[in-house]
Design brief:
It is built from 7 helices and 11 strands. By secondary structure, the chain is an alpha/beta fold. The strands form 2 sheets. A 7-stranded mixed sheet has the order 3-2-4-5-1-8-9, sandwiched between helices. About 40% of the residues are buried. The mean pLDDT is about 95.
């Protein structure tokens, strides 16, 4: 049976040369408009000033024709999700975000509603991390402990947002992003990792996965396998991996 899930997973909200979310504006507007969405529920849990973060998103998206409200302004987070057709989970610290999602019993609830086709999911940076199999490949510092590293599992693999290619001429001798991802892939519980470059996003439409945006992505798999995918690549095969 074909999945009914729909999601946009952005590497970040900002990309060099663009204003906030501008690089993804066409994809975001199309995603929401074709599903008849006028109101968007924003989840600012990855940062501590909920009002300020929500206001920043409202300033960008309200002029696009979408009425943004913060989940923290509702009496009950579950009711907030149930009364909206689309949710946008913002970036910040992934560990803090996931902890708050678990505290509010939203992880399973969001997963079920997305899989049923009753909720559109948008995530950026940390909001993308928590949408995947786990947050093992976040770039963030573990400033707080969530009860689990397991994510919402809209997709059955991991993502590394803000992925940076190693520049051969640089003088930095510390670990590269590739090395850190390689360390994760040596673990028995590891799944493939899709490194989303700045300005890229993953479009999830049922059983179809497309890399969109203004940049590509890199797929890391066990056995030191690394594959580059430009924008507009179809990576739907990743949904068939037995890693969920």
């Amino acid at each position: 049976m074909q999945s009914r899930r729909q999601a946009l997973l952005l590497s970040s909200s900002n990309c060099h040369g663009y204003s906030m979310l501008e690089f993804a504006k066409q994809e975001i507007c199309s995603f929401l408009e074709r599903n008849g969405v006028k109101k968007l529920l924003f989840v600012p849990y990855a940062q501590n000033d909920f009002d300020k973060y929500t206001a920043k998103i409202k300033e960008v998206m309200d002029p696009w024709g979408f009425e943004v409200s913060g989940i923290h302004t509702y009496d009950n987070p579950i009711n907030a999700v149930n009364s909206n057709k689309a949710i946008f989970v913002g970036g910040g610290n992934t560990f803090l975000l996931l902890k708050r999602l678990y505290e509010n019993n939203l992880v399973d609830h969001i997963r079920n509603k997305v899989n049923e086709g009753n909720l559109l999911y948008m995530g950026s940076s940390a909001g993308t991390n928590v949408a995947t199999k786990s947050i093992h490949t976040t770039n963030d510092m573990p400033i707080i402990y969530p009860p689990s590293f397991d994510g919402i599992k809209i997709v059955p693999f991991n993502i590394n947002p803000h992925y940076l290619d190693k520049v051969e001429s640089e003088t930095h001798k510390g670990e590269t992003r590739d090395q850190r991802i390689g360390e994760y892939l040596e673990m028995p519980h590891a799944s493939p990792v899709l490194g989303l470059r700045e300005g890229s996003l993953l479009k999830v439409d049922g059983d179809t996965l497309l890399i969109k945006g203004v940049a590509g992505a890199v797929l890391f798999e066990k056995g030191n396998k690394k594959t580059d995918y430009p924008a507009d690549s179809d990576v739907s095969f990743l949904l068939n991996a037995n890693n969920a």
